[in-house]
Amino acid sequence: MRTALNQISRSDAQILTDQIRVAVDQLWELLLEAHERQAWKAMGYPTWDAYIAGEFNMSRRHSYRLLDQGMVNRAIADASGQDVTHGSQISEREARDLKPIIGEVTSEIRSRVESGEHPGRAASEVVEAKRANKKRADAEKSVRKVEREAEQAKHDKERARNADALPDAVKEQQARKAEAMGERRQQRTEVGIDRIAALEAENEELRETNNALETEIATLRSGHAKWEGMRVQFEKGGFEKVVADKDEEIRVLKTRVESESRDKVGWKRSADHWKAEAERLGYSRDLIMDLETGEITDA
């Protein structure tokens, strides 16, 4: 019999939550590395499916969903130049929505970062916009589905009304025809059920294989996009052009950092100056309240 446990303390709950968060954050990353580096072969398994089933008791479908999540998160991190944190990482469900358009997502993120926008902000805003578009598209799809169903119900009702108006002889003939068609359909179902099951199993296997290939293709595309800019630079002027452009990027970033640092130093000096000026004029941060009159004065 299981012993009842006391409620966890606030501090212990925070520690436990942090541990869970770390485990969740690392799962897709580790699984993606195992897939890309073919860990199953090193462990003596014939396939990836056998590996994840034998080592983790995980279904093939779930493993590919995690791989998709890892691929999408890494592609976004590569595009923004910033590691994906718990607060900004993409969930499994979101990854499924973003995967078909990951090239579009990363291209937009990379463009905004190169124009000087903060990487984290660029990534979060682009992803959020794509989520909103998907949500809006799903809502519109649902509305269209309801409209189609309403139209179909209207047609079915009209067809039933027309059928009721037919002569009895025609109704009997149609009933016999429907019965004969039902018998033939049942025969085909009984004969083909094993074939259908085999085709469904084959289709599922092909679908999972396709998912694996799509994941690999998306990974390759992400890597290609990462170096595409350098390829263009190389074609323009060889390695010297690539190095020169990177040096220019570093110079621009360094100049921006130096400028921001000077601004902060200036702000600090200004604050110190006005603080000293206020103290010279007799102002103080300390206040005294007269408990009898309620009057507040500087110390």
Spatial sequence of strands, sheet with the most strands: 1-2
Order of helices and strands: HHHHHHHHEE
* pLDDT < 50 runs, ≥5 residues: none
**Could you say which structural class the secondary elements and strand pairing correspond to?**
mainly alpha
Distance between the termini: 67 Å
Mean pLDDT comes to 77
Over the alpha carbons, how many angstroms does the gyration radius reach?
A: 33 Å
Helix content: over 70%
Strand content: under 5%
Largest sheet: 2 strands, antiparallel
Query: What overall form do the CA principal axes indicate?
Result: elongated
Count, helices: 8
Would you count the extended β strands for me? Answer: 2
Structure description:
Residues 110-168 are annotated as: Disordered. Residues 110-120, 127-162 have a biased composition (Basic and acidic residues). A two-stranded antiparallel ribbon has the order 1-2. It has 8 helices and 2 strands. With 299 residues, it is an all-alpha fold. The radius of gyration is 33 Å and the shape is elongated. The model has no long low-confidence stretch (mean pLDDT 77).
Give me the secondary-structure topology.
Elements: H1 10-36, H2 39-42, H3 48-56, H4 60-80, H5 92-98, H6 102-114, H7 119-164, H8 168-280, E1 287-289, E2 296-298
Antiparallel strand pairs: 1-2
Helix pairs in contact: 1-4, 4-5, 4-6, 4-7, 4-8, 6-7, 6-8
Biased composition (Basic and acidic residues): 110-120, 127-162
Region (Disordered): 110-168
Brief digest:
By secondary structure, the chain is mostly helical. The chain has helices at residues 10-36, 39-42, 48-56, 60-80, 92-98, 102-114, 119-164, 168-280; strands spanning 287-289, 296-298.
